[in-house]
Structures are given as C-alpha cells and as structure tokens.
Amino acid sequence: MPIISYIEAVTRAIREEMERDENVFVLGEDVGKRGGVFRATNGLYEQFGEERVIDTPLAESAIAGVGIGAAMYGLRPIAEMQFADFIMPAVNQIISEAAKIRYRSNNDWQCPITIRAPYGGGVHGALYHSQSVEAIFANVPGLKIVMPSTPYDVKGLLKAAIRSNDPVLFFEHKRAYRLIKGEVPDEDYTLPIGKADVKREGDDITVITYGLCVHFAMQAAENLAKQGYQAHILDLRTVYPLDKEAIIEAARKTGKVLLVTEDNKEGSIISEVSAIIAEHCMFDLDAPIKRLAGPDVPAMPYAPTMEKYFMVNPDKVEAAMKELAEF
Amino acid sequence: MTKLRHHQLGLSDEDVLQMFKTMVLARMIDERMWLLNRAGKIPFVISCQGQEAAQVGAAMALNKDKDYVLPYYRDMGVVLHFGMTTQELMLSGFAKAEDPNSGGRQMPGHFGKSKNRIVTGSSPVTTQVPHAVGFGLAAKMKKEDWVAFTTFGEGSSNQGDFHEGINFASVHDLPCIFMCENNKYAISVPLEKQLNCENVSDRAVGYGIHGETVDGNDPLAVYEAISKARKRAIEGGGPSLIETVSYRLTPHSSDDDDSVYRAKEEVEAAKKIDSIITFGSYLKEVGLLSDKTEEELRTNLRKEIDEATDYAEKAGYAEPESALKYVYGEE
Ligand SMILES: Cc1ncc(C[n+]2csc(CCOP(=O)(O)OP(=O)(O)O)c2C)c(N)n1
Ligand SMILES: [Mg+2]
Q: Which domains does chain B have, with CATH numbers?
C-alpha cells in the first residue's frame, strides 16, 4: 500500500470525489490557482477548472452561506476555511442555518455541505492560527464534527463527509499535514462517521483522544510499554456526536482513563467524554478520570516558551499516563 | 388610443386580476391571523400588510415553475403566488403537524416548501441572502435558466450577510435578484437611523451591480423592475438590487406596540395610499373591476379563509416525541 502524507490524503479524497460526482465542488480563499495556503487543493484547479474550484471573495460567512445554498439545491460543496480560527465570521451560518435546515423544515430540505478547516497548534501560529474550535460546535445537534488522526482515516472519513446528506465540519490538524504519513489504499473506501477506532490494544490504562494527540499518545505508549504498562488507545475520530458505546467499552476495559485534548480544558470535547464515563462506568473505574488539556487561557501564545507550555506533547502525555498507571 | 399600463408591460387583464386577487388574499389571511391571535387562538403573527404589492408584483415577474425563492418572514404574497395555499398558511399559523413549512416546528412566517422551490428560512435576519447566491451559483454551474430571488427588510440590509452575499454574486455574475422591502421601520428604528445613504439601492454601486428603487405600493412598477432584473440575470448580466418602498401598516408583530415610536397620523396617511386601495382603483378605472366584483372576490376569499381556519384549528399537533426526529438524515 502506498505511504502518503495526511495532507495528500485530503487532496486525494477531494479529487476522487470530484471525479466520481460532478456535483462536488470546492470553494474558499486561495483554493484555486494557489491550491490552498497549505496546498490541500493542489492540482484541483488545473484538473477541474475555475468553475469547480472557486476562489471566493475574502468573506467566510459567504463561503459557508453560499455553500449552504448550493447544498440545499443539491450540489455537494466542500467549503474551506483557511484556518479554523477564521471560521468565526461563519458561525451564524453554520449553527443557525446548516445545522438546523433539516430539522426546521421537518425533513423537507437538507444541507449536504462539508466545511474543512485546518486547526491546531505547535506551529508558531500564535493566538489566531493555532486554535481548536470544535467545542464551539459540539453542542449543536444537526452538525457532525470529524477530526481524523491518520492519512487512512482522513481519506475514508473525508469521502464519507462529502457523501453525507448532513453538514459535516472536518477539522484537519495543520501540524499533521506533513508530519504524519501512513498507508492509504488507492482504492475508493469510506469510513463510518460517528465511530471511534481503537488505535492500540492494552490492559493497564485507557487513553481517549483525537487528532494529533493520538500520535502523542501512541509515542508515549511505546515508552510506557518499556516500563511494563500497556496502554489502550481509543481515537474518537468523530468528536460530535460521540461514539458512546466505544467510549464506555474502552473505559471499562482498563478502569483507568486518561482523556487528552490540545484544546482548553473546560467545556472541551473531553469534558463530555468524561461525563459519559461518569454516567456509565462509575463502578468500573479504579482511578479518578484524568484529563490532560491546554490551560484555560484564551489561546496559544507566539513565543516558543509559552507555546510549548500551552501545547500538549508526547512527554506530557507520557507523564500523565504513567501517573495514572501507578495510581 | 394609448395602451394601458399593464398591457405595456405584457400583462393580460387576467394577469392583473390575478395579481389583485393574490394581494387581497394575502391581506385577508393576515387580518384573520390577527383576529385569531387576539382571540388567543394562535400565539404569534408577523404581517405582510403594506407590502403585498411589492411581493405579488415581484413574484409574478418570476417563473414560478422554475425559479427559486428565498422569502423573508413578511412574504406571504410571494409564497401564495409560488403555490403555498391558504390552508397551508393557516396550518402554519396554528403550528399543526400538516404544516408543510415546518410541521409546526417554526413560528409562522418561516416559509419553506421544496416542492414549490420555496427555500426554508430561519429567524436570524439576512442569512438567506448568501443562500440565494448559492442557488444562483448552482444555476450557473448547471447552466440552467432560472434565477434565485430573495427578500429582506431595509434594517436587515445592514447585516454582513447582505454585503458578503451580494458581492459574491456580483463577482461571479450569478443569476440572483435581491429585493429589499423597505417599509421604513425595523421594529421601532426608522430608516434614517439605519442607513446614511438615500436609498438602500444606492449600495448596489459598491458591488458593481444594477440598483433601483421603485414604488412598493405599485405592483406594476415592481413587476417591471423584477422582470428586467430577471431578464438580465438569465442573460448573464448578473444580479440586481431592487428596493421597494412602502410602509409597514401593522406593528412589527403581534407582540409589538408601535404607538410608542410612531404617530397614528403617519400610519393613517400610509393607509390612504395602501396598494390594495390604489391598485383596486386602477383596475376599476380601466374597467376590470367594480365594487360588485370586488365584493364577490372578497366573499369568495373569506369563504376560503373560513374553511382553511376551520381545517387548521381542527388538525392535529405533531406527536410530542416527534420533536426528536430529523436531526440527521441517516438515522
Ligand atoms: C440577526 C438578528 N438580529 C435581530 C433580530 C430581531 N429582529 C427581528 S425583525 C427585526 C427588524 C427587521 O427590520 P427590517 O429588516 O427593516 O425588516 P421588517 O421587519 O421591517 O420587514 C429585528 C431587529 C433578528 N431576527 N435577527
Ligand atoms: Mg423594515
């Protein structure tokens, strides 16, 4: 199986879906000739032309809103937000419109839009090019939020998002784009949205996380294995709605649970995961639920000292895992 | 002999009678809704009164078998012309399960019916403008000859979505018609506190598109402006911003008291140039309508509204647990 990067998996998923269905098109800032500021849409403009790879005016509410209109008509737009941080001007369109179109029309209309955005820190992006924004959308029924960790998952889940008849927010970790590589079949395949995935089997502690932090946990788990502890790692993949069954099963498996996100801690995705475990696994736990996350400050600062302090990394994950294993 | 105005516009005598009928029907349904509200039978009304000429004049300039409309909450005249029935509007007023707009999920005025290409709307104002642009984009991509028509109030023309949407449509030459129904107030706030240019349509210059202000009490003037806008759009000439100026004859909604922010005399003066009266007079002058035929028309419409009200009042509500349905498609 060919080994490709995380961002190449994004491009391939889009290209294959555009080849498969002429209703699929891309719109966003600099997505055309430039191929995206991260090059996620590289080559698509040349292959499909400016009609299907649309450089829009610099206005996020219109990128989302025009996409929503086209989706209601029956097209399958893939709207790119240049950075997840800049999705904010489009929040009204996403929460008031996309999320509610099916429900408010009593199933008479639907909105099959995919909104992609690079998120995440550790790239010297400072406050406004580093944020995790998923928690804002994660109590909005009607939306689905996918945050894949591997190139394999990216391709399968992005294709599923594009084919979904509901709006999907697809957050890609920008540091994973070129850092993470993996095997991706050339063939067409989709992965189910809403299903978590066990990335490592183990009996001593459970780590539940998503996105780039999955890789931090995997690395930490290898070190911990040398010290005699085997970690079970569950990758949420879809952070809304959550795969409750998989979360409960993973928590029960070891009775010791570490939850990791690089987002701010309070009110984050892992807060909800923690509540699910507390509700269902009270008598299966051998230690208090442990959370590792960014501090509750507005966002990640620029200077390397402060950025490193904010950002989750393999060492921090390993330390938290060890502490839990020894509890 | 000089040609009659409506003939000059290519409208037949039947067309203008139909126009008048839809205007009167919208007005009479709206009046009934207020009675039902004041009688405690329906929780909320938001009115078309004063804007029927703009709505029906515009809707008749569209192709109701092809075009997509994205109306705002006052557009009863638009949706009636596009095939929403009196009974369906009443079902929506009573929030009953059979309401095609939302099955009783949304307040009245939140129109939507895919079969008739009436696109579902929400409460936050102006969000429908970018949606209309998305429909226009679809028409262009699919090389189809229809337009997307959307409306909003003058206060709502200050929202970012108005500017972002129209600019996008202009840059991509999309077949969209943006119609601002300027009724001089946004709840209590008068026009002069909303914008500092003379007309909402002046803003068209900033987007490089056609802008025009017409008398919103004259359905023929609106018909003409929208017909031309539609022709331009279909021929690749891009979007237009048409402003119809009229007056909101009712309080903002059934929950508003307008006496605290505007004078009775102002409302009374507006009622004298109410389009239902002035367009009725035109039809009488040209011999298409008489007091007698108008009364017959009203009697028939009253009967239709009575029956619709009865039906809607007796119809069932949605099952409580049905509130859980249709969050996602693949359930
Ligand atoms: C984004 C948003 N802000 C505020 C409101 C509350 N609101 C509803 S209608 C309205 C006034 C709208 O005035 P205008 O656009 O002139 O339309 P009109 O009601 O006069 O037809 C306001 C403030 C809303 N629905 N949406
Ligand atoms: Mg107004």
A: 5-324 (3.40.50.970)
